[in-house]
Amino acid sequence: MAGHWTDEFSFFGGAIQDTRHAYLLAVHDPAAEAKAPQTTAVIWTDGSWHGESFEWSCAGCGIIGDEFIMVGVEGDVAAITPTDIGEENPIGAIGGRSGALTNARAIDRILYVTGMGRRVLRRDGINAWTQLDAGMPAPDDGPVRGLNAIDGAGAQELVAVGWGGEIWAWDGSTWRSIDSPTNLILSAVRRMSDGTYYAVGQEGIVVRGRADRPGDQERWEIVGEAGAADFLYDVIEFDGRVVASSMLALFELKDEALEPFDFGDAEDVPLTQYRLALEPGPRGAGGPGRLWTIGSKDVFRLDGKSWERID
Predict the structure, then answer these.
(1) What is the pLDDT of residues 30-59, one digit of tens each?
(2) What's CA 39's distance to the chain center, in Å?
(3) For the chain, does the N or the C end have fewer beta carbons within 10 angstroms?
């Protein structure tokens, strides 16, 4: 049933714990209209709802163990567990770098954060952050530069993307700049099960490449474009398919071309998109789990056959 939150709130992200627990990010519409910093962590458990409000704007989130961790644009941090909700010390300038934070991703049980000024941070525990961007050149007074997203196989292989089409690869000790096939803003990146990365962004661009084959075999290429009207904000692998989202549309990459996602004969489908998340399947069941689409006024999940409205 719809309308738990969407009458007064707009969703903009989240992370899925399992089939029974999800954490969603929302902003109170009046606060958004007033341009006032505010985030509500919406906790969904077996169809029941609970919300916790914070007076700051969230940049990203991730689940590490039983903790749902939120990171704010200005460095605020909160951790939510089944029994506690606490705020940590804000993240300040580290290693002389500052800049608004843009996103967060849980990778192999570690939370990584990206930001403007080519910031990359790793959370090592409560109030403990490590700078990982020391090997990247700090932006000068030229074009705006920043990182919008990160993903990877683990601590020895990460890829970060951002403004100007920048693509950076981390091998566990150093960053190297990868020749990008575009100068458009890249807003999201995701590592697929075969080790290939897909990044999406401005003008509906989709680029593809690897980070474990330095040299010619690492070459990244454009493999799809949704068009100038569709800024793509997220990309994910679901049931062997590459799925991407804009604010108002869902796409699937087929034969190196983006096509509108086939909703089949479903009568109730998401009209707003934005962020994508994967719900792990039941323990021991195998299979791809379920795809979540998190739009401002629609939250759905797909089990591969049917769509279920969460809100």
Answers:
(1) 999 999 999 999 999 988 999 999 999 999
(2) 16
(3) N
